[in-house]
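Handout for the seminar on molecular recognition.
Each group receives one record of this type.
Step one: identify the two inputs.
Step two: read the structure output and locate the region that could contact glutathione.
Step three: write two sentences on what you found, then compare them with the reference statements printed after the record.
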Amino acid sequence: MTQPTIRLYDYWRSSAAYRVRIALNIKGLAYTSVPVNLLASEQSAEPYRATNPQGLVPTIEIDGRRIVQSLAIIDYLDRRFPAPPLLPADPFARADAMALALIVACDIHPPLNLRMGRRLKQDLSVDDDGRARWTEHWMGEGLAAMEAMAPDTPYLAGEAPGLPDLCLVPQLYNARRNAVALDSYPKLVAIDARCTALASFAAAHPDRVGAP
Ligand SMILES: N[C@@H](CCC(=O)N[C@@H](CS)C(=O)NCC(=O)O)C(=O)O
């Protein structure tokens, strides 16, 4: 395999970037991290805006071409570097794995994003307690559905970690940071523990990557 030149526009605590870091590690791809400091709002200003018009991380540059949106990036990596695969080959199993990943990426994560929290606070004057309840609500709704849908396999994607696991682990990291109780999700917590014990997940952890 030819190793491409990869630059990942990254923020240590971004769960969307964390997904991509895990995927790169699973695929054994070396990359250069380009930190974008979200707390300093670098994502919303030039020069990063020109890189990603949404003003969100992650963005990846591979051999000079850019891709945005974590799931599009992971899909690209999985197609270009197929081993090990991040989604099952069987169409039904693949759809089930995609559905679990999309619960995180489309339904849990967006209302809890930094820009959403800022809008709630600054434009709608929602206080700390209100924002904590907002987080608990969206996290709880999505995680309860995932717990009910989680298969009886070691990982959400089956016998090996895959796309839904890459989405789950950063989301549970976020849940713990926000003191969201996880007692009602024993299957998810067990899968998370299995994943985080793997080197590819451990090396992508925010504490290992470090603050900018
Ligand atoms: N759907 C996007 C979400 C990207 C996203 O929301 N990134 C967050 C960090 S996890 C971000 O850049 N937030 C900056 C902000 O809200 O201003 C993806 O999967 O890449």
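Reference statements: The chain is about 50% helix and 10% strand. The domain at 6-84+201-209 is CATH 3.40.30.10 (Glutaredoxin).
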